[in-house]
């Protein structure tokens, strides 16, 4: 009997993906209490500040020097989908937009023709730890859309809740659907120029929890769709009869398959979609179709800075007591309670 798992790979920091996805990063950091500047209360003297990606440490500063995170940097030609499971992210971009999101919120950002943004991880709690866990998914744009207007939108956790999955008259798990439709749950892609906005693209981004000792059936995907399942937390999961340990990614066939869980809740991320099928040239923060277009992207950025940077510094953060909010370039302000 042919296996429905085409490929297995271990999950570390950057995870493999299939077209139309480029890759995804899983950030899991255990930040201590925060100081007056919302950086971690810790001795950072031995850190490679500005490039701290040491997976042996409980937390990483990434490209941050004071506050962990990713100070101002450019993008062109693709989208980022950032799912924050725990902790907070402060966003600022070259259009003048900004925001704070976390604890289940999702940010969808189409870089398009080019924009700068920063993603900082403020340590908001002064007397308690500041754990952070998030996924950032890079979703490609087809050639015809690589120069669309940049776009930024929030999906608040209150509007994208975990919903029960019921099969065989039992609640076998829960699903949070960020894009597409699966397990009779669906959401509307917030980005109008995204490949995910095309129904024929069959893009699905979903977080799936499977209850202990339960069995879940993943129905067949449409023909030609690529499907990847990331089993990132749990114990063991039987995937159509094959035992898989946690922290394993699986590129699957489009066939229906059965997931049978062990003694712990299994947490998975599912990505699927119809391949764009175009050449990919990627270097640093740019994803285009040719190397010449990558060179052009760097030249454009050096000339225009993609609109400049309207903020006083490269790593701004919001005031400590700022709530979850999105402040868009047109002056609109949105929050979960609005």
From TrEMBL:
Gene3D superfamilies from the UniProt entry: Jelly Rolls
Residue ranges occupied by any Pirin N-terminal domain in the UniProt entry: 57-139
Leader peptide range in chain numbering: none
SUPFAM superfamilies named in the record: RmlC-like cupins
Pirin C-terminal domain span: 208-307
PANTHER family: PIRIN, PIRIN-RELATED
Family according to the record: Belongs to the pirin family.
Protein's name in the database: Pirin family protein
The species this protein was found in: Fusibacter paucivorans
High-level lineage: Bacteria, Bacillati, Bacillota, Clostridia, Eubacteriales
């Amino acid at each position: 009997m042919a296996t429905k798992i085409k490929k297995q790979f271990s999950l570390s920091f950057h995870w493999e993906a299939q077209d139309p996805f480029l890759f995804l990063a899983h950030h899991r950091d255990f930040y201590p209490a925060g100081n007056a500047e919302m950086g971690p209360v810790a001795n950072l003297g031995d850190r490679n500040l500005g490039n701290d990606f040491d997976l042996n440490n409980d937390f990483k500063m990434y490209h941050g020097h004071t506050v962990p995170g990713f100070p101002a940097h450019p993008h062109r030609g693709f989208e980022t989908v950032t799912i924050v499971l725990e902790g907070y992210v402060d966003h600022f971009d070259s259009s003048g937009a900004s925001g704070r999101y976390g604890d289940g919120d999702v940010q969808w950002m189409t870089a398009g023709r080019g924009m700068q943004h920063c993603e900082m991880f403020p340590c908001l709690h002064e007397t308690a730890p500041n754990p952070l866990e998030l996924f950032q998914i890079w979703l490609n744009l087809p050639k015809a859309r690589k120069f669309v207007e940049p776009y930024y939108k929030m999906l608040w956790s209150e509007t994208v809740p975990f919903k029960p999955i019921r099969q065989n008259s039992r609640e076998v798990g829960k699903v949070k659907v960020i894009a597409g439709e699966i397990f009779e749950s669906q959401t509307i892609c917030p980005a109008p120029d995204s490949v995910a906005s095309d129904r024929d693209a069959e893009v699905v981004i979903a977080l799936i929890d499977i209850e202990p000792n339960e069995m879940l059936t993943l129905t067949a995907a449409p023909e030609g769709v690529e499907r990847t399942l990331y089993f990132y937390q749990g114990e063991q999961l039987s995937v159509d009869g094959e035992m898989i340990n946690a922290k394993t990614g699986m590129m699957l066939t489009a066939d229906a398959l059965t997931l049978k869980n062990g003694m712990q809740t299994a947490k998975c991320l599912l990505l699927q979609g119809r391949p764009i099928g175009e050449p990919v040239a990627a270097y640093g923060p740019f994803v285009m179709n040719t190397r010449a277009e990558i060179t052009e992207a760097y030249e454009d950025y050096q000339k225009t800075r993609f609109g400049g940077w309207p903020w006083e510094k490269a790593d701004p953060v919001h005031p400590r007591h700022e709530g979850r909010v999105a402040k868009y370039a047109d002056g609109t302000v949105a929050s979960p309670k609005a």
